[in-house]
């Protein structure tokens, strides 16, 4: 069967494009000549000049065949010297390098985590929150929930102190940075959250709770998740009032608000709204989930684990640990021992209250 130029292209490496074009052109000419050569020979003239021309043509064909064979051999030699052999050696060297980097790659995050844990723990709580908030704004992504954590799990006085520390450390307000680094619905939610100064008392107004539960349900039913009233309720009401409103929401409409906010599990703004609700109403449950996600079969998220332990150690880490065990049926200290090593493990356990570990 006659070889086509298209088939030759498919068998030649892309790096030999120019060389392959020469070979293809030569093959095409040779193919054409070989195809018509029998016809020429049948009709060849009986004169000596015609015979000489055919002999010359035949010699040219033979030379073309030899040249094509030479090109093929050159291609193989070129591949052996600079192509496949070099690529194979490179792949072997790369694999060897990657294998040698595995222990280093696993060690570096742990070393950095130890340094970060020491750094965070050495800071006063207000400075620590200011540092984390500044880091969150500079590296902000729509999935970053640190600003919500700080705004919604701290008391009004703690948040106010963090904002003062932020101003001293970074010569600007946290509101300025949030406004600068966030956009759209995220800015619309986060700005009032970090600006808020909530009432900290236990008193609630049940009439307001019922009215605002209805507002929340109406807005969520219409998927108006960025509605001004919805954000106002979550950003300004006291935590006791928010709890009363959401309890009435569940009683009146038969479903927890966070389940209604899971309309689209992949929507990161809805995820931020759910985190806002959980941080305001059940912070220990929120932090237990962060810890659970940071310790999983895919590897440890040292950043999240370090942040939770460092920021909650003096507040409610024992409650977070109890919630973790209730949900996962494994003590948090055992999970940490299983998932961490060395000084990092020892420091985490010490902050958990296991100083003899």
TrEMBL record:
Ca(2+) 3 binds at residue 295. SUPFAM superfamilies: Annexin. Pfam families: Annexin. InterPro entries: Annexin (IPR001464), Annexin_repeat (IPR018502), Annexin_repeat_CS (IPR018252), Annexin_sf (IPR037104), AnnexinD_plant (IPR009118). One of its GO terms (biological process) is response to water deprivation. GO terms for molecular function: calcium ion binding; calcium-dependent phospholipid binding; phosphatidylserine binding. Ca(2+) 2 binds at residue 297. GO terms for cellular component: cytoplasm; plasma membrane. Ca(2+) 1 binds at residues 299, 337, 339-340, 345. Keywords: Annexin, Calcium, Calcium/phospholipid-binding, Metal-binding, Repeat. A pair of annexin repeats may form one binding site for calcium and phospholipid. Belongs to the annexin family. This is Annexin. It comes from Vicia faba (Broad bean). The lineage of its organism: Eukaryota, Viridiplantae, Streptophyta, Embryophyta, Tracheophyta.
